[in-house]
Amino acid sequence: MIKVSESIELKALLLTDSEMIHQVKEQNRAHLAPWHDWATKKECLQDTQNFIISTQKEAAEGISLSLGVFYQDQFIGMLGFNKLDATMKQAEMGYWLAEKYTQKGIMTTSAKALIKYGIDVLEIRRFSIDCAVHNIKSQKVAERLGFCYEAFLPKNEKVGEMYFDHKRYIFEVKQNMTDLM
């Protein structure tokens, strides 16, 4: 568990959270479908439970770290390292929030806490975020975090029947970093 603030925590997903997570995903499907392929497909509770089990397995293997964003003990989204490379000390970040919690600084504050955890605990030295070129809000999160634009990635992700170009943002850790936090 990563305590972000008095009201925000990042926590590993548990099967006991599956109904709450499933409900939030279903309620926000239209909001998330333009950016996430999984949101274009109808899911049942068992699909959410299988997702939780896979996040636990991948975390144990050290290949990803998917955390729930909890605001006042309610699940409101996901944040994590979709890919972790311990050898190269790199992490690829991903995130989403329920629509009613966007534009409140929750994701930026939460992502800062996760990056600090990545630096201090996992010894990550290079972070990346890939955003669809038309997902301006996600790009703004990367920029507020101090990430720099690195590359244009054509047809980097398929969402539904569409292929999206992405912008890659990176953050590289310097010695004795104090400006992030």
Largest sheet: 8 strands, mixed
How many E strands? Answer: 8
CATH architecture: 3-Layer(aba) Sandwich
CATH superfamily placement: Gcn5-related N-acetyltransferase (GNAT)
Topology diagram in text:
Elements: E1 2-3, E2 8-12, H1 18-27, H2 29-32, H3 45-61, E3 65-71, E4 74-85, E5 90-97, H4 106-120, E6 126-132, H5 136-144, E7 148-159, E8 162-172
Parallel strand pairs: 5-6
Antiparallel strand pairs: 1-2, 2-3, 3-4, 4-5, 6-8, 7-8
Helix pairs in contact: 1-3
Features:
single chain; 181 residues; alpha+beta; Aminopeptidase; 8-stranded mixed beta sheet; 5 helices; 8 strands; 35% strand; globular
Description:
The longest helix has 17 residues, at 45-61. The protein has a single domain (2-129), classed as 3-Layer(aba) Sandwich (Aminopeptidase). Strands 1-2-3-4-5-6-8-7 form an 8-stranded mixed beta sheet, sandwiched between helices. It is built from 5 helices and 8 strands; from the N terminus they run ββαααβββαβαββ. 30% of the residues lie in helices and 35% in strands. Strand 5 (90-97), helix 4 (106-120) and strand 6 form a beta-alpha-beta unit. The relative contact order is 0.14. With 181 residues, it is an alpha+beta fold. The model has no long low-confidence stretch (mean pLDDT 90).
